[in-house]
Amino acid sequence: MYCCHPCKFGTWHPSPVKPNFNSATRLAAAQKRWASQAARREDDSKISIGPQRKGESGEDEKDTGIVYYGPISSTIKKVKLLSLSTCCLSVSLGPVITFMTSPGMNVILKGAVASTVIFLSASTTGALHWFVSPYIHKLRWQPGSDSFEVEMLSWLATYIPRTIKFADIRPAETNRPFVTFKANGDFYFVDTEHCHNKALLARLTPQTNDQKSTLKNL
Fold first, then answer.
1. Residue 132: domain span
2. Is 213 domain-assigned?
3. Distance CA 74, CA 63 (A)
4. What is the pLDDT of residues 60-108, one digit of tens each?
5. Is 40 part of a structural domain of the chain?
6. 201 in any annotated domain
7. pTM score, two decimals?
8. d(Cα 148, Cα 134) in Å, to the nearest integer?
9. In angstroms, rounded to a whole number, what is the distance separating the alpha carbons of residues 208 and 65?
10. Would residue 11 count as lying in a domain?
11. Which of 37, 48, 201, 207 has its CA 20 to 30 A from that of 54?
12. What InterPro entries does this protein map onto (predicted)?
């Protein structure tokens, strides 16, 4: 790129002008940062199934001692928040909409319809909580310790820490789905395919008396 200017003898001579690469580099870097932030916000808004990669969950890297992450922990929390939101809307707005939309309907029938809507919404929310309540979202354990800490999900989709001793673990003798072991009267579930600490997994999955007798017979 050249520009022309008159010299003192009245003739024109082209002089080279160096392009400004700094502004172009800064613009490209800003566009790259904006694109990465937009992609991250889009990924966070989606309901993903599977284990999260490091750095995606937004957890502090200083959180040490965690040996197991629930692979669908974020998905369960988002689904539960959605269920709680719909339940609250059904309980608060269901009766109002029922009584306002059908002025000619009998009052008793309106009450029955509103009660049915509330019951169905609360039942689905309760069934979802019963189904995912044994799911362990995080597990902290130091090798050599006789206890470990787990994070469970409460009714309001908040994490609750619990400390469990290995001596309190019992086999889960139940037909309830997604249960690995029982401790202190509560059921717990660990995804064995994503628990890479085999020594810990062996202590979390005790054998029943029938299994022990079968192994002895073999």
1. 65-206
2. no
3. 17
4. 444 578 999 999 999 999 999 999 999 999 888 888 887 787 777 788 8
5. no
6. yes
7. 0.65
8. 16
9. 29
10. no
11. 201
12. TMEM70, TMEM70/TMEM186/TMEM223
